[in-house]
Design brief:
about 200 residues, two-stranded antiparallel sheet, elongated, Reverse transcriptase zinc-binding domain-containing protein
């Protein structure tokens, strides 16, 4: 899931999905060309090869769509209409967003990303998009501060909930999550929410 975060935080598409979008974009161009164009003839021939059970570039795209983590179903008929191809492009983007959402929700290290919200100018909250270029990438201008913030929201920090998650065969046995208590004496798990919002173990801090 940590690799997924690279894409969801920057709004960059993984190469697998980007290549499919480019292939579908060219398919839309080829399908819209006049019949007198060589590219249209070649494109229709590729579609006919799929119907006859032979390999072709159109068949490769159909195969790639069906083998995404969240499969996109398609047939050769979907490649003969610009509107249908646009639907496939949208389905590819939705497939990526669903896959990224599932990865974040299943991760034990993305607690702060699972219920992320944003606020409009009137202060009303709404669910943040899973896939977007995050404002903190521009707001936090000092690189080491930006890296520290990213490490914090992805649970790559030195709080007990993370440090005590690791084990060592000789020196550090497994510590259940409920035993990873706050180092300042609180009877709560020292996780991100507790450390930032709830901890009262040190009034000065």
């Amino acid at each position: 899931s940590m690799l997924v975060i690279l894409f969801t935080e920057t709004s960059l598409l993984p190469l697998r999905y980007r290549r499919l979008e480019l292939a579908l974009s060219y398919a839309k161009y080829a399908s819209a060309c006049p019949v007198s164009y060589y590219v249209k003839c070649a494109y229709l021939h590729a579609c006919n090869l799929v119907r006859k059970g032979h390999a072709s570039q159109v068949g490769d795209i159909i195969h790639a769509l069906s083998h995404l983590p969240v499969p996109v179903k398609s047939s050769v008929d979907d490649f003969l209409s610009g509107a249908q191809i646009d639907n496939l492009v949208k389905a590819v983007r939705d497939s990526w967003i669903t896959s990224a959402t599932d990865a974040i929700q299943a991760s034990i290290r993305c607690t702060l990303l699972k219920a992320r919200v944003e606020f409009d100018r009137k202060g009303h909250s709404f669910p943040a998009p899973v896939f977007a270029s995050r404002s903190y990438l521009k707001i936090i201008t000092v690189p080491i501060h930006r890296r520290a913030y990213l490490r914090f929201i992805t649970s790559n920090h030195m709080l007990a909930v993370e440090v005590l998650r690791y084990t060592d065969r000789r020196y550090q046995p497994y510590v259940p999550r409920e035993w990873r208590k706050c180092r300042l004496g609180c009877d709560e798990v020292e996780d991100e929410v507790h450390a930032i919002l709830c901890c009262e173990g040190d009034p000065d801090l």
